[in-house]
Write the C-alpha cells for this entry.
Amino acid sequence: PSWPRSLSITSSAAMSRRVRSLATIPDAGAVPVLIKIVADVKSEPTLRIEAMNALGALVTADHLELLLDLLSNSVPGIRGAALQALARVDPDTFLTALASLDADREWSVRVAVATALGTLPSAQSLPRLTQMLQDPDQKVIPAVLGALASSKATGVERILLDRLNSPDLSVRAAAANAL
C-alpha cells in the first residue's frame, strides 16, 4: 500500500487511529512513514506520540541509533515510548542507556521506564526498580509496584505489603492489585 497517501486525511483523531493501526500490521513498510511523523515537529504532539508507540511495536535492532536519538526528544511521550521500544528490542542497550541518563524530569517518562523494566528479568530490573520506589512523584510508584510484582523476585511481597499503608490511594490500590 501507499502509506503516505493512506495517511493523508485531515481529522487528527482519524489520523491517530490510522497511525495506531499501523502497529497492528507487522509491515516494515510502515516504519519510514512513522519515523517521518515522529520527526515532524509541526505535527501535533499526540499524533507524534501515537506514531512513536506504533513505531515501538515495529522497530528492530536495525533501528537502535534512532531509538537512542529519540531518548533526548523534547516530547516526554516520545522519550517514554522510545525507552520502552529500546527495552523490547535490545534490553542490554536499554540498561546501558538508562545507566547513563539522569532520571527524567517528567513523571510519565519515569513510569515508562518502570514499565519497561517490568519486562526484563528481575536480576536486571530489581536494583533500578527498588531505587525508583523513592521517586518524589507518587504517580510513578504504582508503575514501579506493578513492575516489581511482575518480577516475582524474593522480597517483593514485603514491599507490596508495606505500600498498603501509603497515604496515597493510587499507591495503596496498586499494591493491593499486585498482591
Observations:
- DSSP finds twelve helices and no strands in the chain.
- The longest helix spans residues 45-58.
- The CA atoms of residues 107 and 137 lie 7 Å apart.
- The two ends are 47 Å apart (CA to CA).
